[in-house]
Design a protein that fits this description.
alpha+beta, disordered N terminus, ATP-binding, kinase, phosphoprotein, 9 helices, 11 strands, Heat Shock Protein 90, two-component regulatory system, Beta-Lactamase, six-stranded mixed beta sheet
Amino acid sequence: MVITSGITDTDGISSVGPSTAELLNGLATAVLLLDNGRRVHYLNSAAEGLLNISANRAVGQLAEELLGMGAVLQGAVLAATTGHTTTFREIEIQQGSASHRKEEPIRVDCTVSPFPAGVDSFWVLAELVAVESLVPKALGSDWREHHVATNQIIQALAHEIKNPLGGLRGAAQLLNRQLPTADLQDYTDIIIRESDRLTKLVDRMTGPRKLHAWELFNLHEALEHVRHLIEAEFKGKIEVQRDYDPSIPDATGHKDYLIQAILNVARNAAQAVDGRGNIRFRTRVRRQFTVGQRRYRHVLEASIQDAGPGIPLELQEKIFLPMITGRSDGTGL
């Protein structure tokens, strides 16, 4: 939102000139013109749509009452009268008139700056740019409590999981020695490796938080490891089709974390097609790609595709929260 201030005459927008009004009305950005008393003298059609109020109802109102910004707006207008610009990021404003508030507040970026309209005339120009909050509304204010409770559950489950892992690994080692062929021993090797990986995972969950050393690994090796696990788990009823980009270089990161993440998603994909049929592993190099508001020259992309029904719309904003699942037998872990 941009606001500019100064001294205005009482003739309203006509003192700015028809060309200026025409220009402002053609903008896709919401714009208001205020006088130095902070009263609205003009708003364009984009502002009418954003604020859900007609120009006839808005003109003459105090801007801080219309927008619900109070002293914040007053200070910005005062600063603008002395030639200074003020910017607010992700500030909440109201929709509709003060006497008929039914809409939820919206978030906008707000800049307040002087807008001279002539030799002896100045206006306050308000430009409102709607922005989406970084935290989805669906998460709500209970997220932190939910997170604490989830951690407690995970701690308890981790201890219950770790105890039988030693016995499982030992049994697999004994069985491995008695199997007659290397093909059958591949399955016990998978059990032993997965037992070791799960033991490390449980140790990380129950132990103190610490930084883990990154390692150089091949993305396709991680995907192939998961492919063997999925095909073994679903007894050959799931075929994993592979569409790999051979130009992908080795990457640096936490290989075990990545394997666990890929395994979780691949298992969900297999369950989405009822444990039979095809899922696809696909890798690509993306160029000039933005991740978390940071732009990278190159990123590696691994996608897992299935022909299942998809995630229900009501779960899409919170599906990555712990304990959230779309399956009746799921845990969300």
